[in-house]
Every structure is written in structure tokens, then in C-alpha cells.
Amino acid sequence: MAAAKKSPKKLSVTLTRSKNGRLASHKACVAGLGLRRMHQTVEVIDTPENRGMINKVHYMLNVEEV
User: Fold this and answer.
1) How many domains does the chain have?
2) Which residues pair with 14 in a beta bridge?
3) What average pLDDT score do residues 31-54 get?
4) Which of 2, 16, 42, 66 is found 20 to 30 A from 27 (Cα to Cα)?
5) Phi then psi for 26, rounded to 5 degrees?
């Protein structure tokens, strides 16, 4: 029997507040998550690196588990 592969957990991340006027490091975190526009939603893999970026700019995002 072959072991079943577990698919990694994913998070749905939506940009709910504007990037304008934010710190450069916060803009970089939003870009690192793959977000470009307001109300855009992307799915990212739940890794410590992505969690760190999400935690840094949590006030601009809406996050849900998929």
C-alpha cells in the first residue's frame, strides 16, 4: 500500500485595506503574499514564513483557513 500524501494546509488571504502610506516593509510583506490590489484574494500555503508576513500586516488582511 502506498502512503497517502497529505496536501498542505492553505490559507485564503484577502487585502482589505490600502497599501498606500504604509511602511516599505509592510508593502513588501503584502507583495510577498502575492497581493496586488484591494479586495484581491489569494491562497497561500500555511508555512511559518507566510504566517510571519501575515502577522506583520494582520491589520490590512482578512485570513481564513481553506
Assistant:
1) 1
2) 41, 62
3) 97
4) 66
5) -75, -40
- CA 46 to CA 52: how far, in whole Å? 10
Q: What is the pTM of this model?
A: 0.86
Range of the domain at 32: 10-65
Asked if the structure places residue 16 within a domain, the reply is yes
pLDDT at 6: 81
- From the list 29, 63, 59, the residue with the least C-alpha distance to 46 is 63
**Any idea what the CATH number is for the domain that residue 52 is in?**
3.30.1390.20
Asked whether residue 47 carries a pLDDT value surpassing 70, the answer given is yes
Cα 29 from Cα 33, distance rounded (Å): 6
